[in-house]
Design brief:
Layout (H helix, E strand, L loop, with lengths): L22 E4 L5 E2 L1 H5 L6 H9 L3 H9 L5 H7 L3 H4 L12 H11 L14 E5 L3 H13 L2 E6 L7 H4 L8 H13 L3 E4 L9 H7 L2 E4 L5 E2 L12 E3 H9 L9 E5 L3 H12 L4 E6 L7 H9 L3 E4 L1 E8 L5 E12 L2 E13 L1 E4 L3 E2 L10 E2 L2 E2 L12 E3 L9 H20 L3 H8 L14 H8 L9 E2 L39 H8 L13 H5 L5 E3 L5 E3 L9 H5 L6 E4 L3 H4 L1
Parallel strand pairs: 2-20, 3-4, 3-6, 4-5, 6-19, 8-15, 9-10, 9-15, 10-11
Antiparallel strand pairs: 1-23, 7-16, 12-13, 13-14, 17-18, 21-22
Helix pairs in contact: 2-3, 2-17, 3-6, 4-6, 6-17, 7-14, 11-12, 14-15
The protein binds flavin-adenine dinucleotide and iron/sulfur cluster (SF4) (2 copies).
Length: 573
Amino acid sequence: MGDLRFTSKGLSYEVDISSQRTMVPVYDFPQKTSPCRVGCPAGHDIAWALYLVRQGEFGAALALFREESPFPSITGRVCYYPCEAVCNRGEHDEALAINMLERALADHGTIPAPRPLASHAEHIAVVGSGPAGLTAAYHLAWLGYRVTVYEKEQEIGGVLRYGIPDYRLPRQVVRDVEAMLRGMGVAFRTGAAVGPELPFKTLLAEHDALFLGVGLSEARALTLKGIEAVSSMPGIEFLYRAKEGRVRSIEGHVLVIGAGDVALDVARSAKRLGADKVSIYYRVHLRAHPEELREAARERISIDGGWEPVRLAPQKDGGVVVRMQGVDHLVEGRAVHNERQTEVRCDHIIYAVGQRANASFLPPELLSNGGLAVNALGQTAHPKVFAGGDITGSYNVVEAIGGAKRAVIGIDSLLRGRDGAALLARVSLGESRPGESPPVSLRSYRQLLGGEAAPLVRQSVPYAAINADYFPPQERVGRPHLGLDERRGLCDEVNLEVPREVAIREASRCFHCGECTVCGNCFIYCPDSAVLQGEDGFFSINGMQCKGCGQCVAECPRSAMSMVPEGDAVAVA
Ligand SMILES: Cc1cc2nc3c(=O)[nH]c(=O)nc-3n(C[C@H](O)[C@H](O)[C@H](O)COP(=O)(O)OP(=O)(O)OC[C@H]3O[C@@H](n4cnc5c(N)ncnc54)[C@H](O)[C@@H]3O)c2cc1C
Ligand code: SF4
Ligand code: SF4
């Protein structure tokens, strides 16, 4: 950054011309952020990371992502990328392929695990090792706490390990995250279900705080008479067994009921396990991610909406005929039928109609509607008990990360006697909206604790503030995929590694909204040589020389500067 030097033409005035202005330019980029960052529940500093990728600095970009989350290698594969939906470039031509670039920086960057910042005596129990539990363990260990993760399964990862198929997320990627956390001093107790043999009360008594990330591990039943008498199974059980190698093949026609993530994973897994035909039937809402739907269609899985199974007729050959009734719409979750009817003959029914928590091990006073109600700091009704992830109402991996990060601030504040709410407000990203929890930056949090003046990042930069003239149209680079003919087994990863040069090309499309990349436009276009460059490479305004024409702000490609009324400049700078 300090390498880019601009040579001054010398001062054009020797008198103080500041009295001519009413507005003054300021470099307010530390108080701005990109919309993609606010749109990422993990709060990743995408704008700057993509600048680093563009320079080929994959390790530095990975380090920046790891400031906020332990596993860009995982979210770079399975996140539904809400960040891309709000990318400013989407209003220009096409949004940046942020998720693909996250995968690229995880593939090509290598950095050591963070070293704990302190050595606190307090011991924290994390229950559940899904994305919420792993995120909490990582950040708590980084802050210097002793952390033990209690996991009922034999391996860690939750849905990442036992739900999402290997062709989307190879299990080795999860094992690598576990190795990193062990290297940071996190202890894992697997095969340790909190319940009758390891009571919640004991855990509470033996630890200074608890983080619960126990997810939604029970499948909702399909209420259909006779379902238990035919070949049928809940989707999460089918995926679990397939991951464990306990379902090695499946024959005939597989009928999948439901149209969320689980249904799509079931259907695509069944295809890979040898099913002759796979059909998905759903009622009204196609909730699965568009990318999943696209890939399922390419893999010749049929998807048909507006149906509900109402009757089963088992056949002598072991198959079953399913009577479907047309669905118009839903009222309070119940289908309102229409006249349409059809019959589907199949060999197996796998249903994915929702999940719920198994919270029987928790004291009833903590529960609310079968889940855990938490405040903005992830704290439950018990002051020592915090929670995050699906059990608190999040729906995907990146939301689980975001919730766990807020709880880490809550736990640290409780144990160190800090004002958690005030700290949370200082490290929240983007404008707060009533009822919504904005993403938080734990990098800023650690900076604050370390005595650095962590930037207050509030305002996200809209497309209207970007100088679009500097960005000619450039096609978005597509993600490399495994060919259809090569998608044979459950472990053939579909999304391929992104070559470095492809990642660099795509990252070069980024506006780096609200960042100063030291392009020097302000310096070059200032008619009064009022822009100064400091030793660190960054610019400042010579208040005596600036007449407030605003040329520098107009020519800044990415809104790293603003014009503010004279007098406000000190407050902003
Ligand atoms: C099949 C499937 C595919 C999905 N695909 C995606 C996707 O592609 N992208 C995406 O963003 N989201 C996806 N999701 C949603 C996402 O996986 C979840 O939102 C996320 O895993 C929630 O994380 P969590 O940590 O809250 O819970 P989980 O991942 O469910 O982890 C909870 C952990 O707690 C453990 N546990 C539970 N009870 C106890 C106990 N009593 N004692 C000890 N341990 C216990 C469980 O064994 C488990 O390991 C998918 C979900 C499913 C089911
Ligand atoms: S974690 Fe998801 S939302 Fe955040 S940057 Fe990655 S793809 Fe985008
Ligand atoms: S252009 Fe780059 S910085 Fe701006 S919103 Fe899109 S990805 Fe983020």
